[in-house]
Amino acid sequence: MTPDPDPSAAPTPMPGGEPLRRRRVRYSGTHPKRFSEKYKERAPERYADAVAKVIASGKTPAGSHRSIMVAEILETLEPRPGQTVVDCTLGYGGHAREILGRLGEEGRLIGFDCDPVELPKTVERLRQAGWDESRFIPVRSNFAGLAAGLAGLGIHGVDGILADLGVSSMQIDDPTRGFTYKDDGPLDLRMNPLKGLSAAEWLARATPVGLATALRDNADEPMADALAGAVVEAVRKRPVTGTQELARLLHEIYRTRGWTRDKTEGDARIRRFFQALRIEVNDEFGVLEALLRQLPDCLKPGGRVAILTFHSGEDRRVKHAFAEGQRRGIYQVVNDSVRRPGPEELRSNPRSASAKLRWAIRGTGASHSKAG
Ligand SMILES: C[S@@+](CC[C@H](N)C(=O)[O-])C[C@H]1O[C@@H](n2cnc3c(N)ncnc32)[C@H](O)[C@@H]1O
Question: Taking the mean position of all CA atoms in its chain, how far away is CA 305?
């Protein structure tokens, strides 16, 4: 991977001896707002002070991700020297680093992620930090293929499994991925842009009923039917391909129908719409259910699983699967109530606000009846 060009870097000498001058990135105001302007945040190894200031202000530096509920997850998974642990959602590698640090020389971490853009960067970071192939094994795959991926590595049971669901800050902040409408970008929203339909393609084919179902199931949108009808009608007349184009269309629909009183309410509705699209194009509920079905067979007896969820549709599925697993005697222990981030984490990282942690421990019995 070639690193992003750093506009403030020393001039690069040309073969003929003349330096190639790079212009400093210019932005209006005192602070960079756009992803492309935040070159300091995207080079933490070079601009540690600038990055520390961003974190102290309660923000996530562009191009990175602040891991959520790290202490609680370590307490739950109890990673120990010599163990094998799977991180199903490697992301920036924040949780993975902490777990790797507890697995000792003989332990190993298998890191799954389906994102072909961010995964190589994370692998490079973890290799640079000293985790070689014998201790950190990356797998570019959807976690719906967890059992097959482990079998392919000759692994038939692990001591711990972590899933930190949803998207990373790197994905959200990068306008070329289409997860945000703060900057303009293609309406994509896929964690793996090499597979499936982009959000623009999905929307172009959506029926009013299909879109209304997605809005209701994925984002609890109260006006799902009317909104879906208006959007499908507009998109059929004129396809929408950009994030800000979609945001403008939604604002216009809300305004003309009197559905929003102010911009804050309108923005919240737009965020819900994007969430519904994201869950749809990534089949987030389908792959979560596939993961939940495979967990018991991937855990050793006594193995632990921890799952961080970020909205009710995810949390409900995890809660149900763990309770059902306990009823069938697969899980020996399941947490009674969800754990939430503490006040300090909520203050310092607002992106942790909706996080809920659930966990379970597989029974030590040799066999179990398979979950349906
Ligand atoms: C919230 S981030 C994880 C952050 C990570 N725990 C850390 O500390 O840096 C979620 C990551 O999981 C990945 N992901 C989400 N769903 C996935 C799936 N079904 N299969 C594989 N990776 C997935 C995303 O691409 C993203 O990189």
Answer: 18
Please say if the pLDDT value at position 338 is more than 90: yes
- Give dist(CA 32, CA 40) in Å, integer: 10
Supply the residue whose CA is at minimum distance from atom 4 of ligand 1: 91
**232 close to ligand 1 (CB < 6 Angstrom):** no
Nearest to 127 by CA among 115, 116, 135: 135
Residue 15 has pLDDT above 50, yes or no: no
Whether residue 145 has its Cβ less than 6 Å from ligand 1: no
Residue in 135, 143, 147 with CA at minimum distance from that of residue 166: 143
Could you identify the residue written with the tokens 């790290």? Answer: 70
CA distance readout (Å), 76 to 63, 89, 302, 319: 28, 17, 13, 16
Spatial separation of the C-alpha atoms in residues 273 and 279, rounded to whole Å: 10
CA Rg value for the chain? 22
Q: Is the CB of 287 under 6 A from ligand 1?
A: yes
Q: b/e string for 64-100 if b means 16 or more Cβ within 10 A?
A: bbbbbbeebbbebbebeeebbbbbbbbbbbbbbbbbb
Q: What is the mean pLDDT of the segment spanning 167-189?
A: 94
Closest CA to 361 of 24, 48, 13, 76: 76
CA 366 from chain centre, in angstroms, equals 34
Q: How many helices and strands (H and E) does the chain possess?
A: 14, 9
Torsion of CA 60, 131, 143, 171, to 10 degrees: 20
- Band (pLDDT 50/70/90 cuts) for residue 47 is low
> Mind giving me the DSSP string for 16-67?
TS-EE--PPP--SSSS--SGGG-TTTT-TTT-HHHHHHHHHTT-PPTT----
